[in-house]
Specification:
Elements lengths: L1 H18 L13 E2 H4 L9 E6 L5 E4 L2 H12 L2 E2 L13 E7 L2 E7 L2 E2 L2 E2 L4 H13 L1 E2 L2
Antiparallel strand pairs: 1-4, 2-3, 2-5, 3-9, 5-6, 6-7, 7-8
Length: 139
């Protein structure tokens, strides 16, 4: 009987300790940031973008430097505001990756950058939709 009580206490303590770990970040832990604060690399070195449609999985590529610069100009002043709800979620509309040569240097989703969830910004969504429409399809 003592072993039963001992094992029950151990199980309860273990359950309590594991429940207290891994709490998601709160929006109080992160501050609003500009795109240029999230991506701390040199934007002038970005020479390729890829964008994947989350609905279809289709991947498109942009290598035209003028289009890349134009898109980055729109993005550089976007302010990313943390979502008060930092609980993990799934699904995304678009996924953009920035490259320097063949090296992927940064990636973002409209509402998730570096593992932090942000409120969806209509300017970001519109720019990603336009980027996807004008990009070349991957073969």
């Amino acid at each position: 009987m003592k072993i039963y009580h001992f094992l029950t206490v151990i199980l309860l303590v273990f359950s309590f300790l594991t429940a207290c770990q891994g709490q998601p970040e709160t929006s109080a832990d992160v501050k609003p940031m500009l795109f240029t604060e999230l991506y701390q690399g040199d934007l002038s070195k970005v020479d390729k973008l890829t964008i994947r449609n989350g609905s279809t999985g289709e991947l498109r590529t942009i290598t035209d430097k003028a289009k890349i610069v134009q898109w980055l100009q729109v993005m550089k002043d976007v302010r990313f505001v943390p979502d008060p709800n930092q609980e993990p979620r799934s699904g995304w509309r678009y996924w953009v990756s920035l490259y320097e040569g063949e090296n992927k240097v940064f990636e973002l989703f409209p509402n998730n950058v570096n593992g932090v969830y942000y409120l969806t910004d209509e300017k970001v969504m519109a720019s990603m939709e336009e980027l996807f429409k004008t990009a070349k399809k991957e073969k």
